Description:
- The chain is mainly alpha-helical and about 190 residues long.
- The chain is about 55% helix and about 0% strand.
- The chain has helices spanning about 15-35, 40-60, 85-90, 110-125, 135-155, 170-185.
- Helix 5 runs antiparallel to helix 6 (about 170-185).
- It is globular, with a radius of gyration of 17 Å.
- The relative contact order is 0.17.
Amino acid sequence: MQVKNLAELAVNFDLESDLLMALESISEALLKVKGGNHSYLKWAVIFGHTALQSAMCLSLITSASFLVRKRTSYKNNYGELDNIEWLYQKLQSTDLLPYVDSKVIPKNALELKQIKHLQTIRNTFIHQQPALYVYTFEELIESIGLTVKLTRFLVSSSERMALGASITKVTLEQKLGVLESQLTSC
């Protein structure tokens, strides 16, 4: 379909595309950071958060779509996505398993602390506060490593990922493989 002018543009949001684009964007941002362009560090963290939130939502949707939204919007058919801390905790509940062989994220206090830190840093970066923030390359690798690890579990092992026809498990696993290689080489 050719678009003749901007008035004809339609925007479609889906979590599968968000996840794939976020994984691709993390990869690009890591290349830029590794090449010395440290302003992309902020974006790697933001894309890491987006990827993790999208993967978590895709895993919870198989149980009930309202589980991905903030509690204040449970009664609606729409609402803001819940934060990654609460999504993470929901994905640890055996009560929310949709299928016989699906798996929960194992409880891990250190991971929960890292999830909270990722949420805080992402909020700091996305809201442009402060103008200068000290964040090390090692912290970036740790944050992205956690995102990749949890996303890999959800995509490859949890048996609960709700994917449409346009983006497959294999495609996501390939992108995760690229990121794992990049993280190893860092």
